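U., I forgot to send this yesterday:
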Amino acid sequence: MNKNFKQVIIVANKSYAVGLFWQPLNDKKNPLLEIEKTSKSLVPQANYYCIKTFGNAQYGLAFRELGHRDKQFVAAISLTSVLKDKPSILSCLKTQQGYWLCAVRNGLILPEDDALFETEDEAKAHYLKLLELPDWAYKIAPVEWRVDGSSPTTIEELFERESYQRLLPLKKQSTLQNIILISIFVLFIALVYKNSLLRLISPAPKKPKQDSALLEKYKPEKLDKGQPEGQTVQTAPGTSATVQPEQPLIVKQKDPTLPWQEMDDIIEFAAICKKAVSLYSKPIFGWDLKTITCNPTTIEASYTRNQGDISIISKAFDKYFKPILGNVNVKFDDNGENVSTSISQPKFTKVSIAPTEPKDIVKKRFLAFSQRTSIKIQTEFLEDQAINGNIIKKFSFMKFTFNSKLDIIEWAKLFRSIGSAEFKEIVWDQKSQTWKVEGRVYEKD
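Result:
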């Protein structure tokens, strides 16, 4: 596959962007805040965005590296606007640039299934794999594929109506803003170091002339080793110098930082992991996604081979993942049967939430919750300590693990309501569509 293959199609002399990174839009009152936060934390390479307002609201992020440009039409929005009455759509349309596949489920454009394929074989394999899913309300496929119940509609027929939804640039800090910030910084430095700057630019005061012979005569004598501390020694006429005892340097040590004073924001951590799952779930022909593991520093994904080869998954990462995620570390085992990838996590917002409940209350709360929901939560009560020099502070916490199909962000909101809690690891199992979560709830002493 050509690494320079762009995600752009031309229909009736109009340029359309495909291959966007799609996400549900939660904050409809201030959508740009949500879009910019996602772009900054998960896909900093994004350059443009668009918003789908009808049906289930979504936003898409676009990338200059994929050929996307300002004010470019958005193919997925054009398609779904024409077929608003179809909640689930599986389409593959032939264009001059290749085969464009777009899948919609329950009114949402699937983030991993808006893509332009260079070859028919690759597009057809991807289409047939999605076709195994039930409940497609409307199917579009090339006539020669002979897909039962599919429409032979062409992209030119679908896009006859003018589309007004275009890509818009994500806000970047302007040159003027940079100049203003630099000016403020320079002014701040000038005010703080005013006296030092004045000394640098002012002429040095002239030193009075000194009689070198007189100075030599009354040069201070070196203190003998046996000289008592505090004794006055002779210097120039009318002056004296007193030997002062050395004072020991006392450095006051700070208390060690306790874990709950610098926790990663639990909702932000869960949201990033969920977005990573959405991205990595993109089907790769001949390879099956096994797990995605999120911890505070990295996101790791593992794949196993069924009928593909190494070149297919390598090309898939070059085409779909690197333009969005940047540098992805990919490792193959000796037999080429398993592949693991890893990327660095963004820096999360740090929060400080002091524990307010003792051990017995925390234990009762989790037992009651587990009994109400029939979700088995394994718990273990542990102690640890934070050390800084000679200062040691002990703390206690409840370690918990559980498996659930419930949205991970809903779990994060639940634990946020508890208070001093954090997730240490989130694992997504692709086969069972289940989250496995490990975390801590800190206890009040």
